[in-house]
Design goal:
The protein is of the alpha/beta class. It is built from four helices and five strands.
Length: 101
């Protein structure tokens, strides 16, 4: 799993690439949260995620919660088929988009 952070525009774009699963969750938690440092806003681009399980989903929900708690605008960007399916199955898309309480 790789993380790409594009700071060339606002909002910044965070793009995980590969498998966002339990096998990568521990090593990705801090880098995901670090992406919020100084961010004028953050868009999460999941278009390159090949697999997303519940551990990966928990990390994404944590990222969204922490961004909102810090007052950092957070949006959900493009989705891969795998990430779209996982978000739909978990009913988590609204949480990531900020439309759920």
């Amino acid at each position: 799993m790789e993380l790409q952070l594009d700071k060339s525009a606002e909002p910044w774009v965070l793009r995980p690439e590969g498998e966002l699963t339990i096998f990568a969750a521990a090593e990705l938690k801090q880098p995901l949260l670090d992406a919020l440092n100084g961010a004028p806003g953050l868009t999460l681009d999941l278009s390159a995620v090949e697999e997303l399980d519940t551990a990966g989903l928990q990390l994404l929900l944590l990222l969204a919660r922490e961004a909102r708690a810090a007052g950092t605008p957070f949006t959900l960007g493009p989705l891969s088929a795998a990430s779209e399916e996982a978000l739909a199955l978990a009913g988590a898309r609204l949480w990531l988009e900020g439309d759920a309480a």
